[in-house]
UniProtKB/TrEMBL annotation:
It comes from the Bacteria. It comes from Oceanisphaera avium. Binds 1 Fe(2+) ion per subunit. GO terms for cellular component: cytoplasm. This is tRNA N6-adenosine threonylcarbamoyltransferase. It catalyses: L-threonylcarbamoyladenylate + adenosine(37) in tRNA = N(6)-L-threonylcarbamoyladenosine(37) in tRNA + AMP + H(+). Its cofactor is Fe(2+). Substrate binds at residues 134-138, 167, 180, 279. SUPFAM superfamilies: Actin-like ATPase domain. HAMAP family: TsaD. The gene is tsaD. Signal peptide: none annotated. One of its GO terms (biological process) is tRNA threonylcarbamoyladenosine modification.
Length: 338
């Protein structure tokens, strides 16, 4: 079976072709970062219009890259939610219509299921069951995964998602969009232990997260340092030290909750996925945690951490094999529980 995957839920147009035997045959990605940079964040209307421009040319490019035609495609998978309504509708409309025109089944994929299964695209793929930590711009979820579609939410963020906290904190530190990776880069230059931020909700039992307070902790640290600098700009080392403290607080908090989830479920495999799983410090700490628990950690390669079509093609194939088929109506779900 060979599936075309279409991802347009936010600010990347991702198209891929996944074949059950051959693996990823084509992977096309267009990032809208430059389009939104002047606005400091994603402008939904601009995102939708750009997906309209890019989706079909990228599908053509993917078919060329795979060296196949529409006749070799057995199904079309598209992200139907969660995400920006207009952006989702572009992928859903094109995906559903193409499948109809090609006389192939269509399947609606949950964006977070795509992220969740992305580590299975790697040669060293995790076996079920496992605990998954999903950390993206829109979600922070701890999930017990027993198989395709067998997901039990163990914990989630009660306010900002981990990626959102990175992005908002980066913005208040004056870093350009997209802030998360920039803040992570700045943090690399920072020294540990100069600033200490809280590890929210780790002193109480439970597996939920809260990250919005870390923005305030960062803002307060910057305000204090600005005062100490006689209202002048905060020096670069201090900024890096603050970024380091923020990142360490997020990473520690995620690691504490992962450990708790693993002990609670008795499982020893941890899958980490979503945009923030590209974070080097998070990977290092979680790998260390899994070594100490005599378990294993699994991550997607960097290009499959952030939004992409490969994870949608892969998840779509699993869903089609399980008998899921999308009816003819075009449906998009900006809010859609996993
Ligand atoms: O999965 P993704 O591409 O899109 C969503 O589904 O939201 O995740 C994007 C998020 C953004 O918040 C971005 O700042 C964050 O992932 N991100 C990172 C890093 N790379 C991407 N956060 C921290 N460190 C990184 N290296
Ligand atoms: Zn995503």
């Amino acid at each position: 079976m060979r599936v075309l995957g279409i991802e347009t839920s936010c600010d990347e147009t991702g198209i891929a072709i996944y074949d059950e035997q051959l693996g990823i045959m084509a992977h096309q990605l267009y990032s809208q970062v430059a389009l939104h940079a002047d606005y400091g964040g994603v402008v939904p209307e601009l995102a939708s219009r750009d997906h309209i421009r890019k989706t079909i040319p990228l599908i053509d490019a993917a078919l060329r890259e795979a060296g196949c035609t529409k006749d070799d495609i057995d199904g079309v998978a598209f992200t139907a939610g969660p995400g920006l309504m207009g952006a989702l509708l572009v992928g859903a409309t094109i995906g559903r219509s193409l499948a109809f025109a090609w006389d192939k089944p269509a399947v609606a994929v949950h964006h977070m299921e795509g992220h969740l299964l992305a580590p299975m695209l790697e040669e060293r793929a995790p076996a079920f069951p496992f605990v998954a930590l999903l950390v993206s711009g829109g979600h922070t979820l701890l999930v017990r995964v027993d198989g395709i579609g067998r997901y039990e939410i163990l914990g989630e963020s009660v306010d900002d998602a981990a990626g959102e906290a990175f992005d908002k904190t980066a913005k208040l530190m004056g870093l350009d969009y997209p802030g998360g990776p920039r803040l992570a880069k700045l943090a690399e230059q920072g020294e540990a232990n100069r600033f200490k931020f809280p590890r929210p909700m780790t002193d109480k039992p439970g597996l939920d997260f809260s990250f919005s307070g870390l923005k305030t902790a960062t803002a307060t640290a910057i305000a204090n340092e600005t005062k100490l600098a006689a209202n002048g700009p905060v020096d670069e080392q201090t900024r890096a030290d603050i970024a380091h403290a923020f990142q360490q607080a997020v990473v520690d908090t995620l690691a504490i909750k992962c450990k708790r989830a693993l002990l609670h479920t008795g499982l020893n495999r941890l899958v980490v996925a979503g945009g923030v799983s590209a974070n080097v410090s998070l990977r290092a700490q979680l790998s260390e945690l899994m070594a100490s628990l005599k378990g294993e950690a699994f991550y997607p390669r960097n290009e499959y951490c952030t939004d992409n079509g490969a994870m949608i093609a892969f998840a779509g194939l699993q869903r089609l094999k399980a008998g899921d088929v999308e009816p003819l109506a075009v449906r998009a779900r900006p809010r859609w529980p996993l």
